[in-house]
């Protein structure tokens, strides 16, 4: 049963300054995410999509991201390229408490924008 849906849209250039601020990146993204962004052909779009995923996750929870470190919500890609979330710390605790068993993630970007869509199921 679906318990939450979240969507977020981010303008890529909004996060462009973050790429030259390692301390800011490390505050919100894991080392794996940072490496993936830096290796991307379009790092600003990759970063924006990851940030949108974290925001969409909070919206799907219904309670937002208050009290959840963004580093506890990590975007990874499978061997097939499909994105998924790895949740640790407080984010994982919230899912367990709410008995959420599956979190689905879809990412897309087009020219100036990145979008993320999250669906949560019991």
CATH class: Alpha Beta
Mean pLDDT: 96
Q: Could you tell me the CATH topology label.
A: Ribosomal Protein L22, Chain A
Which sequence of strands runs across the widest sheet? Answer: 1-5-4
- The CATH homology group name: 4'-phosphopantetheinyl transferase domain
The strand count comes to 5
Count of separate structural domains: 1
Rg (CA only): 14 Å
Report helical residue fraction. Answer: 25-40%
End-to-end distance, in Å?
A: 6 Å
**Uncertain spans:** none
Beta strand %: 25-35%
Order of helical and strand elements: EHHHEEHEE
CATH architecture assignment name: Alpha-Beta Complex
Question: How does the overall form come out from the CA principal axes?
Answer: globular
List the helices and strands and how they pair.
Elements: E1 2-11, H1 22-28, H2 31-39, H3 43-61, E2 73-77, E3 83-87, H4 89-97, E4 102-110, E5 113-121
Antiparallel strand pairs: 1-5, 2-3, 4-5
Index terms:
122 residues; alpha+beta; Ribosomal Protein L22, Chain A; 31% strand; globular
Report on the structure:
By secondary structure, this protein is an alpha+beta fold. It has a single domain (2-121), classed as Alpha-Beta Complex (Ribosomal Protein L22, Chain A), CATH 3.90.470.20. It is built from 4 helices and 5 strands; from the N terminus they run βαααββαββ. It has a 3-stranded antiparallel β-sheet with strand order 1-5-4, covered by helices on one side. Strands 2-3 form a two-stranded antiparallel sheet. α2 (31-39) packs across α3 (43-61). The longest helix is centred in the middle third of the chain and has 19 residues, at 43-61. It is globular, with a radius of gyration of 14 Å. The protein starts with a strand and ends with a strand.
């Amino acid at each position: 049963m679906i318990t939450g849906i979240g969507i977020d849209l981010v303008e890529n250039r909004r996060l462009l300054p973050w790429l030259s601020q390692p301390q800011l990146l490390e505050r919100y993204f894991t080392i794996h995410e940072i490496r993936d962004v830096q290796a991307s052909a379009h790092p600003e779009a990759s970063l924006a999509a990851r940030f949108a995923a974290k925001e969409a996750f909070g919206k799907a929870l219904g309670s937002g991201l208050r009290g959840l470190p963004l580093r506890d919500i990590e975007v990874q890609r499978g061997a097939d390229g499909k994105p998924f979330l790895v949740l640790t710390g407080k984010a994982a605790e919230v899912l367990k408490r709410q008995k959420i068993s599956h979190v689905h993630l879809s990412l897309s970007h087009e020219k100036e924008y990145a979008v993320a869509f999250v669906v949560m199921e019991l």
